[in-house]
């Protein structure tokens, strides 16, 4: 292990998109760098009051706990003790608060630090912890975001446990900083992705505000879309795009007069002309964005009322000239409309709705999508029953 | 310079939030690592058809071009030549396409590469380029996102120019990868921030769709808010929050019936009760978000019609019990409403509007904010004239 490799590790950490995997990599690389038999990662919670246990890996016990693994052992959160008591400071709390590294040859002989958590772990598992290296993870601004605890450095020349060497300390200190920056950036990216999705979802809900098509309509319809996209073997990124973009399909209803939008009876031809404008109004509201999601939303808003046979609106497109997003949404939206109660109709039974979908195969709907719909019917029905359950 | 430092550089690059500064750091660190007299950074454009010139730094000529500096020299974009011609390949294009490093002791003797850009630079500046090291910037997925060109390695033992040493090549190769990952992450963060702002802005515009309060109303009102926030010496991050969150203040109008929202005359008392609900409806639409911006939007939607003397709505809050965001928006929104034409009134003159603001100081409005408004009147008037001009 040398510093060149540490640079490569830094690149790998910075490039890892999955936070759970990133946390696992941090523990793995810290163990490798220091030849430690076990490693535990704690992350400071948002309120900066506790260190939350994330991952524990132990080679001798062949265990991996926390993270995405089956949780064999969950360590309790460590409260940050602002007032450090002499001879009784939880070692992780101490490291997180002071930013100091603790390196001890034997935790059972250590003076001034409380290794009771580690000792309890030994008692529970039969493991025998000896040497320990506990380091703070400091990001580029010097803020401590977590603590890495490494146990039992292995003697490179034999099987025994030795104290952690001072060059190990330097290496894992650098690693801790790289890991902290990588984690800070990745959390920022995740928060921003969520904020973007959240806001797009609010736009969709706001548009449905008046005619009371509910959260559940949007939830079901978007999930039906995702099922159809998966059935076409589209890559997961595309499945996620239609899942998150399809809720805005009717955003243009914001521009439709109440007298038409909320009319209890049938629309007359002139009202119908106005009502149809919701597709172009929606596309206008969503036009010109750099976001792939909003761009997909624009396509969907514009094209979800086109029909395979060219008799839809607003452009009377036919077959593959209709964007795929629009063709998918057409099936999902109509199926949910048919099977839902609306001011002007009762909910149809699934059987009646299936019959209509089949009759409209190759007329209203892309025939391939109707085939996929029935191939994936069990997934569709699962969403219909529990629309809020996670898809992935 | 050693590998430990390279790790520190990687941390600094990953932590830099400003892309322009990040690009400058990449060139600086690459020059330092290799003792190069000059360095140039090209970034691959989104279509992957050109290398866009970003930054050139030259110690001998004491010039820094591109980036945020005064542009003394702008190099033309280098088209990627998919078909490499023997003996006539632009060296940067070659490196970007092949991922190979080019290290030549003298560009005027180099065979097989076209250094005509560098030669033209020499001719224009009187510089004498000799040794060159050109490396691809590969991110963690192996994608090339740019090219670093370093010129004239300085002899550590004297003043002369020497070829680039092979350990320099390794160092700058690692740096290039660190830089590529840092830049990729930072661009993703920037894109996501923009996507979030963009979507929030669309929500604001969608809400104004029917009563045709225009983009310009939102633009002016939000900038007046930012001016007031700056006048209170709030930190820039808070100024940006009110700038981007205040546009959604009236999002609750989505829930107001057309008959009330679009009524040309005065509202009767019952209609007025319904109209006032737009503040709570808006807060509801924006509730429960993790995004600081959306949270601020919720506060603003709820409280922008509260009055300093407690006579506002929906909660009749008084003085400091009204959230600061709401007090700021009240001044900005009313000033813009007064000075704009509405279906039920002509635009008031600024003088008439100023008189009303002063009369309502300590009644409708937080007195301190009215003071700030008049202290910053030149900024307010500049926004009124050019609402689309950038504030920062």
What does this structure look like?
The structure is a homodimer of 392-residue chains. With 392 residues, chain A is α+β, with helices and mostly antiparallel strands. The first copy, chain A, has 2 domains: 3-187, 2-Layer Sandwich (Beta-Lactamase); 195-385, Hypothetical protein af1432, CATH 1.10.3210. Chain A is 49% helix and 13% strand. The first copy, chain A, is built from 15 helices and 10 strands. Chain A has helices at residues 3-15, 19-34, 91-98, 116-125, 166-207, 215-231, 236-245, 258-261, 269-276, 278-285, 292-303, 324-338, 350-359, 367-375, 377-385; strands at residues 36-44, 50-58, 63-66, 78-79, 89-90, 102-104, 113-114, 132-138, 144-154, 161-162. In chain A, the strands form 2 sheets. In chain A, strands 1, 2, 3, 4, 6, 8, 9 and 10 form an 8-stranded antiparallel β-sheet that branches. Chain A starts with a helix and ends in a 7-residue tail after the last helix. The model of chain A has no long low-confidence stretch (mean pLDDT 89). The interface between A and B is large, with 55 and 55 residues.
CATH superfamily of the largest domain in chain A: Hypothetical protein af1432
Q: How many angstroms does the end-to-end distance of chain A come to?
A: 38 Å
Largest interface: A-B, 55 and 55 residues
Helix content of chain A: 40-55%
The 3D shape of chain A can be described as elongated
Q: What is the chain-wise order of helices and strands of chain A?
A: HHEEEEEHEEHEEEHHHHHHHHHHH
Radius of gyration of chain A: 29 Å
User: What's the domain count of chain A?
Assistant: 2
What's the total count of β strands of chain A?
A: 10
Strand content of chain A: 5-15%
Mean pLDDT of chain A: 89
CATH fold-level name of the largest domain in chain A: Hypothetical protein af1432
